[in-house]
Amino acid sequence: MPRLILFHRLILRPLRREPARTLLTVAAVALGVAVVLAIELAGSAAAGSFRSSMETLAGAADYEVTTAGGIPAGVLTRLALLQEPLKLDPRIEDYAVIADRRRTVPFLGVDLLAHRPPEGPSDSASFSRQDSIWTGADLGYRTGDRVRLLINDHANEYTVRGVLGERSGEAIVMDLAPATRILGRAGRLDRILITGPAPLDLLQRAAGPGITVAAYGSRTAENRRMLAAFRWNLRVLSYIALVVGAFLIYNTISVSVVRRRAEIGIVRALGAPRPAILAAFLGEAAALGLAGGLAGILLGRAMAQGAVGLVAATVGSLYVSSTPAPIELTLATSLLGVALGVAVSVISALAPAWEAAQVPPVEAMSRGRRDHQVRVHSLRDLAFAAVLALAAWIASRQPAIDGKPLYGYLAAVTLIAASALAIPALISGLTIAGAAPLGRLFGAEALLAVRSLAGSMRRTAVLVGALSTAIAMMAAVGIMVGSFRQTVLLWMQDRLQADLYLRPASPAGADRHPTLAPEVADRIEALPEIAAVDRFRAYEITYQGMPATLGAGDARIVARYGARPFLSGANPRSIFAAMPGRDNVIVSEPFANKHHVRAGDTIGIALAGRPVRLNILDVYYDYSNERGYIIMDRSTLLKYLPDPAVSNLAVYLKPAASLESGRAAVERAVAGRKVVVLTNRSLREEAIAIFDRTFSITYALEAVAVFVAIMGVAGALLALVIDRRREFGLLRFLGGATAQLRRVILFEAALLGLLANVAGLILGVLLSLLLIYVINKQSFGWTIQFHWPIAVLLGAITLVYAATVIAAIYPARIAAKLNPIEVVHEE
Amino acid sequence: MKSSALALLMAYRLALPGYHYEFPRDHFNHPEFQTEWWYYTGNLRAADGHRFGFELTFFRHGVSQDPAATIWDVNDAWLAHLALSDIDGQRFRHAERLNRQAAGLAGADLAEGRVWNGNWSARITANAHELTAIDAAFRIHLTLTPQKPPVIHGANGVSQKAAGEGRASHYISITRLAAAGAITIEGRAYKVEGLAWMDHEFFTHQLAPEQTGWDWFSLQFEDNSELMLFRLRHKDGSSDPFSAGTYIDAEGRARRLTRDDFTLQLGATWTSPETQARYPIEWRIEVPSLGLDAQLGTRLREQELAKYWEGAIELTGRKQGRPIRGSGYLEMTGYAGPVRIGD
């Protein structure tokens, strides 16, 4: 009980007295917790509890059969003839766009003869009609509705013959035969689901050597594995706001301790033991953390709603077509949120609370020493900072652990700690050097502001630390994304050499490769304006348990027109010359990194059920796909998969032909088909738009972290004003105008912002190097060239700076409103 | 005019008199006819006396005669039924499957000597029909050895079912096959022996619209003779004049029976809880020209599958004045709604 009274008198009462500041601190914690929770929830929904779009209607299968390029029908027959009671569900899997809803949904060809839909025509003839579809329950169609679907490069009307049952999602289902015709497939299947008891090795023997038979859900597990690194990095990013929040808690508790020094002294003198003091201040932190955590849960749930779309967009364009699961706020996640809030708060408060407990009663009670002079050993701390920086450098040289750049993150954290330790030295250096010139330039107010900042070094250091960390993170990610963007732009300049690009109107995705009818290419090739047509085909494959993309283009044309820079720096012409007709391939950099292969290695994959060994000639730079590419010549691909359909076309015009006339001729040639014709320029613009969309979640996380930091600055300045009421009162008494007082506060904010920006920029550049060369490389395998995104950086810093100063307006007004008589009377 | 000529060109062939039968060719597929089926039924007994009836049926129904554009196009729908009547266990188990020909998922092929639908198959050689069928709960593996040559029912190669050209089928039976093999029910295996019957029929549009169903009997007497009878029914329950039958004597000689050669009397009925259809499951058959008066009944009333009743039966009665016993199969269709072949 006495402790509770102590807690109430020493902690709760002061908190109540300053609701604005208390609210700001709680809000900072709440935002930090909310961001972590939002990313956790959105990540779970969009990537964690990963559900491929193709899982709809899969039921409770035991095994699934797949192979690159499609399963020959004979495999189904061999499985069907096995002397085991198996239910086989052969499927063709693709996507269709519902024209009037502009929505891409799974389009499945299934055996409607063997597994009859519950509704629809019962005679065997009409279920396999070309226009008969069955729709998933979630699409909301009714039997008899007419639906216009865009599939690959054609759009047609279909009739809903029936609505599928529960868990049919948004799928559109058709019989195998019409689906094969509409999709222009060669009679192969994409997947066979097997239900029933049978030993795996028996199934594997029946299926044949080039066919993958695996427990059902393996593909989902592969996708989950692929998404794990992405999710992990996203999660780490989401903790930035919480780290910034930790600085603020530290600041709040420090202020509390400093401010209540006299009370602590009295309480101690009256016999309170040290642990009681420690507990009281930790209790304050815990209370703030609890309140922040609870508020963070609600806020996080709301933010998750917005984040899930952003995360899903990134997953969709980089990895795999999926349907986000509903957001589920579980008790466990909620508890995690509260625990995070409390834990971060208590840990941040440990140092100031400890210090409070050490206050000797006599010293604290002695009057005249109102402001505690924190002993800041800036030189010793600077030495520590140097040691930490060295440790960070060593950590950055270490390899990834289990595909995760753990050492990279350790290096980042160490670097942030080093920066926090170096900040006092930076502040003293800058304030000592800057005091006189600033005073001369801006007058007494500036001088007062500089001195005050240097005087309360600890508080200033913490504020600069918090804000600079947020700025550093922002700058680092900004530099990384900007560099990445610039790298991609340059790479596209090299890579995209054709004048026109054609692809089916049905949208492509990382794992989705709609096709164009082969005659489109032939027709274009015959045009007088055209010099060459590169037919590119992509297939979705699995290599060593990870999804990858197999692509094939015309190596001769690429050698003639398009440069494709190789890691080895080898001459592209000689590499492309060695590809046609042979089992030689090039692989993309992410593929090489993920699977630890190099030029000269041999990899084994299965194509349409045939095992094939491929020699890697070289590794090329690629930024289009994180899954990784294996690229072969078209002749090699057709040898194994004789399906002439193409995924897209690169069209090279004759030098004499103008872009307009070439484009017009191509558009005439593809009239009647749903084909998108893009000029080189529009393709690049589109690619960059996708790139930006991919990183929108990153930007959003950044913004929250910076917002938390600015909130912190506002709160801290408010505390500063209240703390220095005596000083301000005295200044007013001595004839200071209210405008002058306001200026002092604004100057302090401006200086804080300046210091934080300087420190933040330095740290940010260092962190960006870590992100680009260690964390990103180890997580995703991309080589990013370092570029300064000067415009973005300047813009962001200016914004933060302005926000910092604006945050000081309210505290400045409070300071100006202080009644000097009353303040001095308190003395 | 042109379109009807085309329709004629594309049309399925009708079962017409004068068809020249040839074996083993005619044990297999006749895709030029729209509908075809292979029926295996039989009564079996395990070493411990446990009695079973079995049915394995392969149906083919022509859906389209358009040239197939893809491997998955359905020209023929292949349906198959598998049923096991556990007489002593008083349990009827059955399974059904529908497949397309695709890359050999189902079919009937002379070169391969088999009729199959997935892993249900009949391998047909000159000496034996080997049946295999697998379901989650039970499986059968039987070797059927023909004891008599195939019988062609009806007159001049057609079994007429209604008035009009082509309202008929080509109808072949092997009326006595010695059966031996194994039945496995939920992991328990029985070695079985018994007698089986095979029907094979192919036709295009055999029934007339007013014919709503049929009752079909295959009876195997202990004196080594057999009797096949079918009664075609009208909506009002009356018998169609084209109802007919065939008697096969111990030497394998077939004798055609017409509507006037036999009488059928219905006894007790059983109402299916599934379809609410009322099936007569006791019959009295009289064939005066054979001196036959027999009572038919079943020990397992519930033998309905997919809207028809098909089950093992037993008979007792008198033939040529002497008491006689026998067993067989009874099929009753159209009680749960009119029969539409090809559904």
The general outline of chain A is elongated
Question: Share of helix among residues of chain B?
Answer: under 10%
Label the overall shape of chain B.
globular
Distance between the termini of chain B: 30 Å
Largest sheet of chain A: 9 strands, mixed
In angstroms, what is the radius of gyration of chain A? 33 Å
CATH architecture of chain B: Beta Barrel
Counting DSSP E segments of at least 2 residues, the number of strands of chain A comes to 18
Q: What percent strand of chain B? A: over 45%
Task: Determine the CATH topology of chain B.
Answer: AttH-like fold
In sequence order, what are the helices and strands of chain B, one letter per element?
A: HEEEEEEEEEEEEEEEEEEEEEEEEE
Average pLDDT level of chain A: 82
CATH-defined superfamily of chain B: AttH-like domain
**Domains of chain A (count):** 4
Task: Give descriptors for this structure.
heterodimer, A: 827 residues, alpha+beta, 28 helices, elongated, B: 343 residues, mainly beta, AttH-like fold, 13-stranded antiparallel β-sheet, ten-stranded antiparallel β-sheet, 1 helix, disordered N terminus
